[in-house]
Amino acid sequence: MQLLNPSSITHYELSLNTEETKYDQIVCIESMKLSLLAKSCLCPGLVTMIFNLIKSSVDCPKEIEN
Fold it and tell me: Which of 26, 39, 60, 65 is the most exposed place for a label (fewest CB within 10 A)?
């Protein structure tokens, strides 16, 4: 599940049973952005590398004719 605010994680977990949320994967966009910003301070160029990896996986070459 993709959430925008970190506080939404608590609301989501409280709204469901604990056994149901055990296997859920929750991604918070704001937390991910702040985590990448913090990691880029420790490792310069990390954000550029991740962006290039994402961009290269999206740009699929056209079929190569034999």
Answer: 65
pLDDT value at residue 21:
54
Q: Which of the four pLDDT bands, split at 50, 70 and 90, describes residue 58?
A: low
Q: What is the dihedral of CA 15, 16, 17, 21, to 10 degrees?
A: -130
Residue 26 in tokens: 């929750």
Predicted confidence (pLDDT) at residue 24 exceeds the cutoff of 60: yes
CA distance 62 to 39: 35
45/65 Cα distance (integer angstroms)? 36
Please give, one letter per residue, the 3-state secondary structure of the chain. CEECCCHHHHHHHHHCCCCCHHHCCCEEHHHHHHHHHHHHHHCCCHHHHHHHHHHHHHCCCCCCCC
